[in-house]
Amino acid sequence: MIPGNLFLATLLFLSGVGICINSWYLGLGTFAKPSAGFLPFGLGVLLTFCSLPLCSRYFLSLKRNELSSNEKVWSSVNFTKVFLILLSLILYMLLLVKLGFLPTAFCVQLMLFKVVGTQKWIPALLQTIATIAVVYLVFIILLDVYIPLFPDWMY
Amino acid sequence: MDVLGHVIYGFQVIFQPANFAYCFLGVFIGTLIGVLPGIGPIGAMAMLLPSTYHVEPVTGIIMLAGIYYGAMYGGSTTSILVNIPGEAASVVTCIDGYEMAKKGRAGPALGISAFGSFIGGTIGIFTMMFVVVPLASIALQFGPPEYFGIMLMGLSLVAYLARGSILKAVIMAILGLLLGCVGSDPVIGKLRFTLGITELNDGIGIVPMVMGLFGISEVLSNVERTKDIDILKTKINRLFPSLEDWRRSIGPIIRGGFLGFALGILPGGGSIISSFTSYTLEKKISTRKQEFGRGAIEGVAGPETANNAAVSGAFVPLLALGIPPNAVMALLLGSLLMHGVTPGPLFMSQHPDVFWGIIASMYTGNCMLLVLNLPLIPVWVRLLKVPYRILFPLIILFCLIGVYTVQNSVFDIFIMFAFGIFGYILKKYGYEEAPLVLAFVLGPMMESAFRQSLILADGSFTIFFKRPISAVAVSVAILLFASHLFSFLRGMRKMVAVSDGKD
């Protein structure tokens, strides 16, 4: 398996190359009249140029079996929690407009408190209600921001 | 109108009820953010940015600025009582502040930190007033090459002063500039890197990006923490430092004030560098060197003063030149632009209410913070006991509302989501987000200045070396970049040599 930092450096290197190609198609113009792709092309070259030494360094470290310690960065990660937090954001993206803020926030926050925060049902419920109440008070009442509270069909 | 007249006008602005209330709200939220580990001022400012759309620009900016300097005050509380800095700028306060608390002197440590912050803030604001006005009038003569040179030097300094690898910071700055290129080209309006997504035609929004990088990624990193915070069980009494404490602290406070202000002006310097430099300076000149690290009050007074004075210093390039020296100021610039206010040499004459209102709000905010921080310390301490498992869903919800309400767009939530994952991975591999954000904000301005300069010079790069200011700035940037590249390549050569030897 490719170590993460080598993978990231390689990705940056390839992104640099990709940006150069894309910028070329955008049109570079001339020095006297630079076009839309001029600066991105230069930045793409710089990104490629700067990520190359990183790739080489990690590749050399890999060759010398030194990258194992770098991979410890993931050892303390609770992937289930990370996944659930990301899932909560996906749920907000999917449901916020369809269901409205209050029902969506209630479901998602309850999931976060109960599952990710590993709380019992009653505290999780109370904290969910309190959280939504705080947000409602601060943003909707005090700061007067607009957010759809319920689904459209309820209006 | 002379400076005094302008200051009086500024106070007329800040004492309008809405401005005063928002100033209080800002410093209160700032202190709260500073106290609570897990979210910084930049995340909080981004979250609350949409709430400022409904108010006058000056009112909104006063609140956002209040969050920034308020967080500097709040950050010291956790450093002293928990040995965890609420803010990166308060890291150095942990060293002697926590030691003082362990010896039963938490009260004087918190007290001198609050008084020092107040004095530092005041020194900073006074100095700022007398620096910004002449600098802005000089900047009226700047053209695109000067602006490009200063921005390039700023970015190079930010990368050079990065906490981790400089090369990684440079890469982050390049990525930030590239992300700033997404959307329509600033000169001819051609669409770039939008991947056919219409929401990207206007570019990536700064709020979802900052919220993802500093809010969501921070939650993802902190959720790994299994242990709740242990607060030192000590009695907090005698918040007012004794005469002996004052005698020992007054020198570090005054030095910290001026040093912090000067370093705050420098791009990438900001509060972190100034607090570390102040600590090092105090340790070096102190006659009680052996006490440093064991609870020397000078080790709290100097850095805490310096980090607050640095906040005022950071406003100088933003207000006078329109160039943010750090990521927080970049966000503030973004919010000023969203309100249709362009900081720079003409800022004072075009928007005197905003300019002098911000300055007067900093005086007022510093007084509010002194009142908030001394008697309310027990309240802040109690807040520290709130476990992270309760805080993080609240942070996520605040981020979500903050992002969504910018344009009522679900796509912005997606951008936040993507940058959240990106920021989390970057953190894991030691890439800093601050240069990316700063470069992202500076990107379009830099590109315009760069292309205009080349058009002016008919394609000749010598234009950057013909004018003294741009020549110095570009040369500094090149030297910084080259010096690091050489040391990196030297390190690589050693590595290859060792590797070959092994083979």
Descriptive report:
The complex is a heterodimer of chains A (155) and B (503). With 155 residues, chain A is an all-alpha fold. Chain A has two domains: 60 residues; 76 residues, no CATH class. Chain A has five helices and no strands. The longest helix of chain A is centred in the first third of the chain and has 26 residues. The relative contact order of chain A is 0.09. Chain B is mainly α. Chain B has one domain. Chain B has a two-stranded antiparallel sheet with strand order 1-2. In chain B, strand 1 and strand 2 form a beta hairpin. In chain B, helix 2 packs across helix 15, helix 4 crosses helix 16 and helix 9 packs across helix 18. The longest helix of chain B has 35 residues. Chains A and B meet through helix 1, helix 2, helix 3, helix 4 and helix 5 of A and helix 8, helix 9, helix 17, helix 18 and helix 19 of B.
Side-by-side strand order of the widest sheet of chain B: 1-2
User: Helix coverage percent of residues of chain A?
Assistant: 55-70%
DSSP strand count of chain A: 0
Cα distance spanning the termini of chain A: 54 Å
What would the average pLDDT of chain B be, to the nearest integer?
85
Strand content of chain B: under 5%
| Element-level helix/strand string of chain B | HHHHHHHHEEHHHHHHHHHHHHH
Radius of gyration of chain A: 24 Å
How many structural domains does the protein architecture of chain B include? 1
| Multimerization state | heterodimer
What is the element string of chain A, with H for helices and E for strands?
A: HHHHH
Walk me through the topology.
The complex is a heterodimer of chains A (155) and B (503).
Chain A lengths: L3 H23 L11 H26 L15 H21 L1 H16 L4 H22 L13
Chain B lengths: L2 H12 L2 H19 L5 H8 L8 H26 L8 H12 L3 H34 L4 H17 L5 H16 L1 E2 L6 E2 L13 H17 L20 H23 L4 H16 L12 H24 L5 H12 L8 H4 L1 H22 L3 H8 L3 H20 L2 H19 L5 H23 L6 H4 L1 H35 L1
Antiparallel strand pairs in B: 1-2
Helix pairs in contact in B: 1-15, 2-4, 2-15, 3-4, 3-9, 3-13, 3-17, 4-5, 4-6, 4-12, 4-13, 4-15, 4-16, 5-6, 5-12, 6-10, 6-12, 6-15, 7-8, 7-19, 7-21, 8-19, 9-17, 9-18, 10-11, 10-12, 11-12, 13-19, 17-18
